UniProtKB/TrEMBL annotation:
This protein's name: Vitamin B12 dependent-methionine synthase activation domain-containing protein
Organism in which the protein naturally occurs: Uliginosibacterium flavum
Start and end residues of each AdoMet activation domain: 1-87
PANTHER family in UniProt: METHIONINE SYNTHASE
Pfam families cross-referenced by the UniProt entry: Met_synt_B12
Keyword Iron-sulfur: no
InterPro entries per the UniProt record, alphabetical: Met_Synthase/Corrinoid (IPR050554), VitB12-dep_Met_synth_activ_dom (IPR004223), VitB12-dep_Met_synth_activ_sf (IPR037010)
Gene3D superfamilies: Vitamin B12-dependent methionine synthase, activation domain (3.10.196.10)
Length: 87
């Protein structure tokens, strides 16, 4: 699942939660801003490969924001809201 700082797009959690149904399975929920409850919950994309390395996404440009908004099906305003930490 998405998490900072390697994947600042938390909106993907919505689709993942629909597929996994963790609310019914273990009582884990999402807030409207995609924070997970309980607060001690952790999410991330985990790749098991000896050459895999952790990385962070640095600040992105306006062109990247606009491209992501189109691909995510969001307005530019919504995209700015979700990616504010990397703008």
């Amino acid at each position: 699942m998405p998490s900072y700082p390697a994947c600042p797009d938390h909106t993907a959690k919505g689709e993942i939660f629909k597929l996994l149904n963790p609310e019914e399975a273990i009582g884990m929920t999402l807030t409207e801003t995609y924070a997970m409850n309980p607060a001690a919950a952790v999410s991330g994309f985990y790749l098991a490969h000896p050459d895999a390395q952790y990385f962070a996404v640095s600040k992105i440009g306006e062109d990247q924001l606009k491209d992501w908004a189109v691909r995510a099906g969001l307005s530019e305003g919504e995209a700015k809201r979700w990616l504010a930490p990397v703008l």
